[in-house]
Structure formats: structure tokens, C-alpha cells
Amino acid sequence: METKPSAPTQADPLESNEQLIETKVKDPEVASNEEPARETWDRKLDFMLSCIGYAVGLGNIWRFPYLCYRNGGGAFLVPYFIFLLICGMPLFFLELTFGQFGALGPVSIWKIAPLFKGVGFCMLIISFLVCVYYNVIIAYALHFMYNSCTSQLPWATCNSVYNTQFCRDPTTNLTDAPSWTNTTCGKGYGWFESVGTTTYNISTLNNTQATEFAEGAESITVNGSCVMYNASAQEYFSLGVLQISSGIDETGNMNYELLLALILAWVIVFICLFKGTKWSGKVVYFTATFPYLVLVTLLIVGVQQEGAWDGVKFYITPNITKLGEIRVWSDAAVQIFYSLGAAWGVLLNYSSLNKFNNNVYRDALTVSTINCCTSVLAGFVVFSVLGSLAFQTGRDIADVVDQGAGLAFVAYPAAVANLPGAPVWAFLFFFMLLNLGLDSQVTCSFLFRLLLCFVSGVMLSVVLIYSDQRQDNCRAVFTPACQFILITPAAGIT
Q1: What is the DSSP string of 15-77?
Q2: Residue 275: which residues within 8 A CB-CB, separation 6 or more?
Q3: CA-CA distance, 120 to 122, in Å (whole number)?
Q4: What are the percentages of helix, strand and coil residues in the chain, rounded to 5?
Q5: Which helix (H) or strand (E) holds 231?
Q6: Inter-helix orientation angle 308-316/360-393, to 10°
Q7: How far is it, in rounded angstroms, from Cα 100 to Cα 492?
Q8: Helix (H) or strand (E) run with residue 444 in it
Q9: CA quadruple 86, 88, 91, 94: dihedral, nearest 10
């Protein structure tokens, strides 16, 4: 009697995964020999500094200080560190662990659950968008760096051809309304006879000259009104750098200075990436550490200026009642996710280049803690200088505080212009912004190279993203792709 061959049994997926984990834990080298060779970090410090450079970015300098001031000063640190502990650190640790275990990129790693492969492509698309706008910011920093190499900072005065009559610098004579009107313009305002009209009640003036002008009327209308002055730094950025037109109907000319700065920014990014991890891992030794040297130096210089401690008190004085507002807690949560940059795929990609037995738990705690402490340090640096600016201009600190590009390219440059040796501090500040921008830009461009591989693969009907030679192909595609990307933000610099 013939016996039928037994049907082949299917391997239990769970059992296979357990065997894979056991093999990697026991002998990572044997496990790695069964997989295609993958580029790794030369040293553990390369990985640490790369993660710090990615997490510590422009948001720490130009966003956190403003949020801290707006949401109760020192009280804002309570929800901030709570969300760091319950959301930021766990998610940061999860992404590093996932990438280190899989040792694959943000798309290929979803072989573990093919249904979610779209998440990987979303990460690449986000990196594409970040690459575009971050390089524009780097171009601004390069422009300011170049124009800081002068004995007189161009945004310190109102003597340029693009300045308007509303521009104000330390030498500007303040103009008030006619004395017979008994009107005094407030802080930051001046009287301009060519702008609008102002109506006064004769009975409130009680002035013979005014009564003669009105000839018995109940009110009198005079040409002129109180108008807020523009800071010279504001007009420099809006009219000198961006060359903003009067409206959408006026397109203006091509801004060749910013265009050249943008091209240079892409060239710098390419130089940081063209040799892969081995080279970019060494670049961060400077780009990730130099900003701390500048921050500490600016803090030492800033706190020695008059009015600096008023700015520091304005920054850290707690307003406990703010903790009852939902916006304070939402801002803290958003800032944690924005600052750490988790779930963008960059951390996943970086940790995939680690050895399997690397202590990723220690790395996650260290990087996330350094990132948040940097934000607090940046707040002291920013508000010490803004406090000095408010003291010198006679304005309230709340009137000079800003966030985003307004802080980095208007408020802080205006404050630095009043420091001794202003061109030196201005150059260092914008060089620091360049390094902070490059760290984040290079890490996002790492993922962006994979996206370029995918797009070019579709065009050529070759799926390069799964090819063993994908890194060489990426480098070949990266250069002409940059030329295309240069066109995209060019519309924003006209």
C-alpha cells in the first residue's frame, strides 16, 4: 500500500521572527552575512552627533523662546517636560529601535507589514518638501553672512535706497504732531503729515491758534497722523533681501543675489552627502557642536548689556494661571513633536546604520534630553539680547519679541546691530543658523535621495529602490535632480 507524501508544512511567521531575533542577538555578524552589505557608522559618536544635529534645529532657536514667553514663561516648562516624558522620549526610542532592528530604510523596513508601506513613502515625500523650504532658509542665512562682512551692518541704518520714510534707526529724529493739538504719539510711532488726516474737537484743544484755524467750527481736521515706525532691520529683510513688491499685480524682477545663495546652498548640501554616511558622519562633528559654542558666546556677551536681565526675567517669570489654558498644553505637545522630529523617517534611517547590539535606549534618552536643554539655553540667549534692544530703543520687550523668520532675520539682527563689534556677532549668529539648517537639511536629504531613486526608477522602468546598487544610482541622480529642485523655490525669490 503506497503512502501519500505528506503535504509541506508552512512555517509559522511568528516562529520565524523569533528565530531571526535569536540569531541576531547571539551572533550579529553571522546574521549580517546573510543579508546584503549595508553601510554603517564608523563610530558610535557619528550616530549620536548626527541625531543631535537633526533634532537640534531652527525650531529650538526661533520657536521655543517665543512659545515659552507667550505661554506663561517658566510655567510653560511644566507641560513641556511632561510631554517630553510621556510622548517625546517613548516615540523617539521606538523609532530608533525599529530602525536598528530592521537595518533597512523607511520604505523597505515595512516588509514587516506591507500594508503600511505607504507610511514609508509619506516619510520620503515629507523629506522632499522639507528639503525645498529649508534650503531657502539656508540661502537667507548665506545672504546675511555675506553682508555681515562689513564695518557697518546694512540693516543698522536707514540710508539705503530701498528705505521708506517710515524707517527708523538710532539716528532718526522722532516727529510729533503740532504742539497746538496736544497730541503725543506713543512709543514706536511718529507723526507724518503726508499720511491720512486727523480730526480734533475744538473744545478739547482749548487753544487760541486752533480756534482761529477752525473759525467757530466744532472740530478741525489736519493733514497727518501717527504711524508706526518700521525698524531698519525689518525694511532690510522685506525690501532689501526679499524685495517684496507692492502686490500680486507687480511680479518684480528676478532676485539674483538670493538665487546665487540658493545655488550655493544646494552645492554645500551635495558636498556633505556625495560620499555617503562615511563623509556626512564626519561633517556633523563641526555642524552639530559649533552652534553650542556660538550660543554660549552670545549668552555671555548678551547678559553684559544694559536691559538684558529684564529680558531674561520676562522669559522665565512663571505665570501659573496659564496652565489652565488648553492652548499652553497643545503648544507644548506640538513643540515636542516638532523639535524631536520623530516619525519623519530620518531617525529610522540613521539607526538602521547601527550595529544590532547598539545601546539605543541610552542614545534616545541622551539626544532627546540634549535637544530640550538646547531650547531652554536658546531662550536665555534670545531674550537677553532682545531685552537689551528694548532698553536701547525705549520700547516694551513684548513689542520686540517675534518668532520664526521674524526673530531670526529681523528682531535678533536688530539687537545684534547694537552690540560692540556688531559685524562679528552677526556673522557668528548667521553662521550658526547655517549649521543648524545644514544638519536638518542633510538628514532630510538622506531620505530624499531614496525618493529620487524611486522617481527615476519609475521613469526608466527600473525599480532602483530595491536594487543592490541603489546608493550609486542615487548619487548619479542626485546632481541633476538638484538642478530641478533649484527651480522650485526660485518662484519665492522673485
Answers
A1: HHHHHHHHHHHH-HHHHHHTS------SSHHHHHHHHHHHHSSHHHHHTHHHHHHHTTGGGGH
A2: none
A3: 5
A4: 65, 5, 30
A5: strand 230-231
A6: 130
A7: 39
A8: helix 422-460
A9: -100
φ and ψ at residue 162, rounded to 5 degrees: -85, -10
Burial class of residue 303 in the structure, from the number of CB atoms within 10 Å of its CB (0-12 exposed, 13-18 middle, 19+ buried): middle
pLDDT per residue over 171-208, tens digit each? 777 777 776 667 777 777 777 777 777 777 666 665 55
Cα–Cα nearest to 139, from 391, 489, 400, 384: 489
Digit-coded pLDDT (tens) for 212-260: 555 556 667 777 788 877 878 888 998 888 888 877 778 778 888 999 9
List the grid coordinates of 374: 538646547
CA quadruple 463, 466, 467, 471: dihedral, nearest 10: 110
Task: Kindly report the pTM of this predicted structure.
Answer: 0.77
* CB within 8 Å of 315: residues ≥ 6 apart: 65, 68, 69, 73, 379, 380, 382, 383
For residues 292 and 428, give the distance between their C-alpha atoms in angstroms, rounded to a whole number. Answer: 11
SS3 track for 139-151? HHHHHHHHHCCCC
- What does the block give as the cell for 150? 562689513
Cell numbers standing for residue 369: 534630553
- One-letter amino acid at 343 equals A
String of DSSP letters for 165-205: TTEE-TTPPP----GGGT----TTEEEEEEEEEEEEEHHHH
